[in-house]
Amino acid sequence: GEAMVRGLAGKVSAVYSAFAADAFIGDVTPRLEPLELKARIRAMSEGLRRYLPADYPQAVSILLATLGPELTLEEGMFNEGWFVLPIAQFVEDYGLDHFDVSLDAMVEITKRNTAEFAVRPYIVRDAERVLARLREYVDHPNAHVRRWVSEGTRPRLPWGQRLDVFIRDPQPTLALLEQLKDDPELYVRKSVANHLNDIAKDHPELVAEVAARWYASGSEGTRWIVRHGLRTLIKRGDPAALAILGYDVGAAVTAAHFAVQPETIRVGDSLRLALTLSNDGADEHDVVIDFRVHFVKANGKSSPKVFKWTTRRLAAGESIMLEKSVPLKPVTTRRYYPGWHAIDVQVNGQVLATSGFTLV
């Protein structure tokens, strides 16, 4: 909002006395009100382009001089340095003809916030040139830069430009992940896991092969990456992924009881799920328990979304009772439509029981 525009203007004025701060504020602020987050960031970037020198390297050097000290904590990027986002957008939008200057700038930006979005047009323009630089950063002393190597090349990064070159062939980024899978920082390993999960959506067999190798011979940190990185395949009930984590698709487990209450609800209310699981076999089994809500779409058809419930170890002959409250609260990523919504219980990838509710 306006406070961020004014703060950014002050930072630029402090390092570049010719900056027309009042004109910049008066130009950019009125444009923001109807816009959402990403569009506001771009509006500020466009304003910087109008009021900074036309020479891109000079303009970038001015912006880099405003950055201040490097972040030291993971959460710093989420509660400090929001003013850096328009600077990263500036590099994303205007720097493609100055490849090395821009990539150098992204490294400095990443130390204070993130350049995971900014790097993506550069990958589209010349993936090998970017990869050559990123290979140099897998051992960078700054954890934010190491994370950027993984996060910036994620093929399906939320909010980011999709990288079809890596969707078609993930081998170049898998080579980067191999170098990062034992990173000492959980912050970096989280990105590696999310990247692996992205690849799994298009290359499940390849990811299962990589994950099996990592899980068999990796550290506990690497094994955590595998567990987190296989989450989409686990939700899909992929037998190879389940086997890597020790879940037996053929386990003799049954749902003795599954109920959903109330039968009719409105958006904002909560469902109550009650489940009784029994291990009818002679061996104990580890089980991963999920549930799928078949959300009604605008055309009246339904589409399932899998939600995590829990994981348990069932002894031979053991039965357990589970309950879960599921709030149907409004969210920006889903629109609700009235009608019958089926709910499945999925255990080790197998649907064991179905019930449902009516949304009015």
Outline the structure in words.
This protein has 360 residues and is an alpha+beta fold. It contains 17 helices and eight strands. The chain has helices spanning 2-15, 21-32, 37-51, 56-64, 76-79, 84-94, 99-110, 120-125, 127-134, 143-151, 164-168, 171-180, 186-200, 204-217, 220-229, 231-236, 239-244, and strands at 253-261, 264-265, 270-279, 285-296, 302-314, 319-327, 339-347, 350-359. The strands form two sheets. It has a five-stranded mixed β-sheet, with no helix packed on it. A three-stranded antiparallel β-sheet has the order 1-3-6, with no helix packed on it. The longest helix is centred in the first third of the chain and has 15 residues, at 37-51. The mean pLDDT is 94.
Give me the secondary-structure topology.
Elements: H1 2-15, H2 21-32, H3 37-51, H4 56-64, H5 76-79, H6 84-94, H7 99-110, H8 120-125, H9 127-134, H10 143-151, H11 164-168, H12 171-180, H13 186-200, H14 204-217, H15 220-229, H16 231-236, H17 239-244, E1 253-261, E2 264-265, E3 270-279, E4 285-296, E5 302-314, E6 319-327, E7 339-347, E8 350-359
Parallel strand pairs: 2-8
Antiparallel strand pairs: 1-3, 3-6, 4-5, 4-7, 7-8
Helix pairs in contact: 1-2, 2-3, 3-6, 4-6, 4-7, 6-7, 10-13, 13-14, 13-15, 14-15
